[in-house]
Model the fold of this input.
Amino acid sequence: MNAAIVGIGATDFSKDSGRSELQLAAEAVKAALEDAGLTPSDVDGLVSFTMDTNAEIAVARELGIPELTFFSRVHYGGGAACATVQQAAMAVETGAAKVVVCYRAFNERSGHRFGQVQTAAAANIDNSWSYPVGLGTPAAMVAMFARRYMHEYGATSEDFGRIAVIDRKHAATNPNAWFHNRPITLDDHQASRWIAEPLRLLDCCQESDGGVALVVTTAERARDLPNKPAHVKAATQGSGTDQFTMTSYYRDDLTGLPEMGVVARGLWERSGIGPSDVDVAVLYDHFTPFVLVQLEELGFCGRGEAKDFIRTGALELDGSLPLNPHGGQLGEAYLHGMNGIAEGVRQVRGTAVNQVENVNHVLVTAGTGVPTSGLVLGQG
Amino acid sequence: MIDIEKEAARIAERGECAPRLARDPVNLPMIRNWLEAIGDEHPGYTEVAPPAMVQVWTMAGLHGQRTLDDPLGAMMTVLDEAGYTSVVATNSDQTYHRYLEVGEQLSVTTSLEDVTGPKRTGLGEGWFVTTRSTWWVGDEAVAEMRFRVLKFRPAQKLAPEPEVHQAPQAIRPSVNRDTQYFWDGCNQGELRIQRCGGCGLLRHPPGPMCPECGATKPTYLVSEGYGVIYSYVVHHHPQVPGKQTPFVIALVELDEGVRMLGEFDGEPGVGQRVEVVFTKVDDDLTMPSWRPRADR
Done:
């Protein structure tokens, strides 16, 4: 695609920001524009999540962005993350806008907590098959997949735990991570309490307050800006057959994420690269089991083989597929996947705190269990 | 029911937690702040810290989190889950072996010493939890503390709760034209599966247009109510309106071929045979749930 991410910005990641969600959004966008070497008056497009409480016009008012020619929101929770960049890239490619900022900001820990039961969500007809029977949290909804996955492939709680250990290891050396200096062992994981069996506390990402913003423009414009651009090599959304939000339980089998398979096919086809060309993988990790399933859907290993693939050490920083060098959402912060895209940009620039050597291509994925999206970022 | 004494024994058996380092070495600015806050004007604390300050050095800070192996945190969680949700510190006995000098790096270890109860107190029924902490400089124990809290159930909640199968705040489904037949069936003790009036496709959850043939004339059949557990979840946290944790939710593959969610009463396993049972929530709502299939 003829588009690049030229600026990234974020607030601090905390458990109690002490400020409004709009302020978090405005701070993140301001920081991203400064990073990009641009000003609010350069911006003519804004994209966010439908779940974000900060309207595009409110963000524009706070920053003094005078006029917008493109504004858009993407559905399905964390599945929107990479799709915001896709929207922005399509907008700058078609000329609908020149500079588009993607943002996501919330007080997800001190305010509205996604980990609690959202009683109001049962008003949705699809949710009326799950919430009233007591299946009302994201952890429990993922646990239903995880149990079947374990049954079919012989994966264990320890296999899930290895993902948490890797993320926390990477977060331990990232000063911006909530779990900076706090690595865990597999024993810690195994000793952590049940949340929704087979998921333990340490299989679940944290809840965070904060904001992240990304500035997208054309590849030509990117050349004149101060930072090395992270080119959008491919961006796609994905929804599968008989798709539900978090509860696609009625398909032939429960061991895959067909919507991520759709994303994978789109990314490889459009970027012209394949799994073996990926230098860093930033995989959405709200719950550990779906990281295993993503490794399989994206073609890094065969069906049911993720548990063995992980044990080879492939996901370590010096492995063949370094995973979430920033610590992911389990270790850095839960920003609905947007902090993972920022990490992808840093890895392409060569400025990450846990920098991987010779990065040509970074794969980033968005929310799992929901209609989702993905990105391949790379050098020019 | 949570066996509090058993949980306490399990936590106590772990012994001391791993040493937790103080965030900063013993330092003069913190000593000054503490003296001002306490109102102690003694001029002597320029090289050594006031002994009673010992606990301050290893406090985790405003946004600190307990470490995973912290025995007090673990015991609090157990008591929270058992309904003893309030806490009050009752006493703290400290022993100081020597003055701490500016620049010394402290660490602390803690073990669970004792949990006694349930006791009736003025605040409500509760358990006394006693921990023992030791502060270290290197290998040298420099201070100790026995710390006791009362974890209690606030008194106004002691009245017996009415016997209801599910609490009245249970989450209710929303019902529309496409789904009304299903909930009507539950109220009449029938487990209904949508059947396409055009091609006969069975489908759950239902919808207004058949994805196979495009017909918009759904009918239904009444399921025999038998199936097997395809997958399941044991839900522990957080609390769910109308449910008592832990509880099991099973995804059941009915013999007719469709899958359906419901609460399961029993010890679950993938592949286990189950049968439907209808649980009346109130006059307007009956939920299908599952139980192990009786041998026949």
In short: Chain A has a mean pLDDT of 97. The radius of gyration of chain A is 19 Å.
